[in-house]
């Protein structure tokens, strides 16, 4: 009787082990196949947004915004500055909702929360601002690529149904700026190239 019981336990383990192995393989494959924010940005061709940008309003106010990859391209940080105003934000992908989300806070005490969408060759973020006094306002910012060094943003109002207003409230054109590290790397590359050419020319 004891021998039969032992054989049954062994047989049960033999049956369970392949199932466990299959489950582990499925879980591992699923984890690998899971999309990151970097995958989504690359898939839709919006990686051109990453970098340092500068613009100037009609009133002459200078604006600077930097979008940086963080955490192995699972996160984009936002650093926005203009006179008397600063904003810090984060953009990330939420797999459970299949949404690209943006949150942020500014030096006026406002918090920001929104979601990103693709509109043809443009990227659009629908965002809600909650001010320090509790008042809220909704808006949408549309990003479009003019050329390799130029980006345009358009700010729209959003009505109660979620529809964008007909005309943008404001439009800004940003120019790409070199980040300090990038400039040093470019300068170093040029210096190395000159040295190589000089060495080749020497006898």
Jot down its keywords.
203 residues, alpha+beta, Lipocalin, ten-stranded antiparallel beta barrel, globular
Task: Describe, in short, the structure shown.
The chain is α+β, with helices and mostly antiparallel strands and 203 residues long. It has one domain: Beta Barrel (Lipocalin), CATH 2.40.128.
Structural features, described:
It is a single chain. The chain has 203 residues and is of the alpha+beta class. It has one domain (40-183): Beta Barrel (Lipocalin). The protein has helices spanning 2-33, 37-44, 180-201, and strands at 51-56, 62-70, 75-82, 85-94, 99-106, 111-119, 122-130, 136-147, 150-157, 170-177. The protein has a 10-stranded antiparallel barrel. The termini are far apart.
Number of domains: 1
CA-CA gap between termini: 93 Å
Structural class, judged by helices and strands?
Answer: alpha+beta
CATH class identity: Mainly Beta
Q: The CATH topology is what?
A: Lipocalin
Low-confidence stretches: 5-13, 17-33
């Amino acid at each position: 009787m004891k021998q039969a019981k032992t054989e049954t336990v062994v047989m049960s383990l033999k049956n369970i082990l392949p199932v466990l192995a299959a489950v582990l393989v499925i879980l591992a494959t699923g984890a690998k196949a899971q999309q990151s924010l970097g995958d989504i940005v690359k898939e839709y061709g919006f990686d051109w947004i990453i970098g340092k940008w500068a613009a100037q309003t009609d009133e002459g106010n200078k604006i600077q915004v930097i979008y940086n990859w963080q955490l192995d391209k699972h996160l984009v940080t936002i650093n926005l500055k203009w006179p008397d105003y600063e904003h810090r934000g984060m953009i990330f992908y939420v797999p459970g909702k299949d949404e690209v989300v943006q949150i942020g806070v500014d030096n006026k005490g406002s918090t920001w929360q929104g979601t990103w969408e693709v509109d043809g060759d443009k990227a659009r973020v629908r965002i809600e601002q909650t001010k320090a006094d509790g008042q809220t306002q909704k808006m949408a910012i549309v990003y479009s690529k003019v050329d390799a060094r130029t980006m345009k943003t358009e700010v729209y109002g959003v009505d109660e149904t979620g529809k964008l207003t007909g005309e943008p409230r404001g439009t800004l054109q940003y120019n790409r700026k070199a980040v300090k590290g990038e400039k040093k790397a470019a300068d170093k590359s040029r210096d190395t190239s000159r040295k190589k050419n000089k060495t080749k020319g020497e006898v």
